[in-house]
Amino acid sequence: MGRVFKYGDNIDTDVIIPARYLNTQDPKELAKFCMIDIDENFNKEVKEGDFIVAGDNFGCGSSREHAPIAIKASGVKAVIAKNYARIFYRNSFNIGMPILESEEAVEKIDNGDDIDVDFKTGIITNNTKNEKYQSQIIPAFMEKIIAADGLVNYVRQGGQNE
């Protein structure tokens, strides 16, 4: 279970991790400034296992891989959005961070709700409202990349295309 930090549509990578903080590759340093331009308390309040829920086109903007790295290093268990910018979508799986698409969940989940996700079934449980929503199921190949903590580790462990 984790608490929801909810944002709107078109959250771009410069909002997720502003360019002025891209002078490091250290995930923990990036996490200190994650979402700072849209939510100055995010890095102080987010805890391991929390979730980000957002509207349309999450992760649009520049193709920086730092954005999903900053979110993952912040302790976020998964991002749930209506849909994603394609490069952010792929970068998230490449670094081993699960992301889900569910319009229903985004419409019904409120900021601060307590939710949990069953990644095998795609069921999102809203414990605050006692509701369940269906998300797209993560493809088996992507699950293996997430389990390996990213594409590089997956390949190092001998992963192959299926």
From TrEMBL:
Keywords noted in UniProt: Lyase
E.C. number(s) listed in UniProt: 4.2.1.33
Lineage top rank: taxon: Bacteria
Broadest EC class assigned to this enzyme: lyase
Keyword Lyase on entry: yes
Name this protein carries in UniProt: 3-isopropylmalate dehydratase small subunit
Species of provenance: Miniphocaeibacter halophilus
